[in-house]
Design goal:
Arc Repressor Mutant, subunit A; D-Maltodextrin-Binding Protein, domain 2
């Protein structure tokens, strides 16, 4: 059990849906849902029950949330007493811009690990609708760093972070050659984000590059429902292998040639504040560790 899980549970109770709680906390909804499930497994109880499109607390959930509020209030009081450093300086803010599809990478993986090493740095995620807005936020000084697709314009400094693989998530009964040829996407029924959304624009750009025209079986931004629609046989889904939490009841297939995406940390050509330099060094080390595991 940890404070992050308690904050997520309290926020879900307050907002009535995990999506709204995640938005209020500036975290990705899958990361919040995963943390709540982990706490439920650890405690051996169900904290929330579904109610329409939202959730409600169970009886034991109400008791847990009541105690969680007490614990969080105590932590806040302690932080208030220790908020100033010995030299009188308070914690440093770090602003990182990113797109909605890459936000889980920041909030679910990088920021929690960085926060353990640098507890005095407060990280704020600046959400952007696309790569152009990310670059604009960095240029305008609204963000110190950004996690985005590469390449970026030449007025930005870029540090490659990781290469991601796009995979086909489909009902197991779907008959398709493996690895999947790119032309198999032509006419395939797909579960797609809503038209005009940042995620949809990313996928449409990818499909145009491939030269494939699939059939939209479902168009929705309810990301938590996408795998359910795939399991129900309504269509297949294009998503990133590293962002798959639960693959039960679906088949995950690679493409040939592979569909990959290089992401990186970028910043303007100016001197970075110390917290940004620390985060950049941390992210590079994280990427090296990940590559080392992959090679073994």
């Amino acid at each position: 059990m940890n404070l992050r899980q308690l904050r997520y549970v309290v926020a879900t109770a307050d907002h009535g849906t995990m999506t709204s709680a995640a938005q209020a906390l500036y975290v990705a909804q899958p990361a919040l849902s995963r943390a709540v499930r982990e706490l439920e497994r650890e405690l051996g109880v169900e904290l929330f029950a579904r109610s329409g499109r939202g959730v409600v607390l169970t009886t034991i959930g109400e008791q847990v949330v009541r105690q969680a509020r007490v614990a969080l209030d105590a932590v806040e009081a302690i932080e208030g007493m220790s908020g100033a450093r010995p030299n009188g300086q308070r914690g440093t803010d770090l602003r990182i811009a990113t797109t909605s599809s890459l936000e889980p990478e920041l909030t679910g993986r990088l920021i929690p690990r960085f926060a353990r090493d640098q507890p005095a740095v407060r990280v704020r995620v600046v959400r952007c609708d696309g790569r152009d807005q990310v670059a604009a936020a960095v240029r305008a000084g609204r963000a110190d760093l950004a996690l985005t697709d590469l390449p970026v314009p030449g007025d930005m400094a870029a540090h490659p972070f990781e290469q991601r693989e796009v995979v086909l998530i489909s009902p197991p009964a779907l008959k398709v050659r493996e690895p999947v040829p790119l032309n198999a996407l032509d006419g395939m029924r797909l579960v797609l984000p809503a038209r005009g959304s940042p995620r949809r624009l990313e996928i449409d750009t990818m499909l145009r590059r491939i030269g494939a025209t699939p059939v939209a079986a479902v168009e929705s931004d309810e990301r938590g429902s996408w795998l359910g629609w795939v399991r129900a046989g309504m269509g297949s889904l294009l998503w990133y292998r590293n962002q798959l939490d639960d693959t039960e009841g679906v088949a995950v297939r690679s493409f040939m040639p592979p569909i990959t995406r290089m992401i990186g940390l970028v910043h303007a050509h100016r001197r970075l504040p110390p917290a940004a330099r620390d985060f950049l060094a941390f992210a590079k080390e994280t990427a090296r560790e990940s590559r080392g595991r992959d090679h073994h």
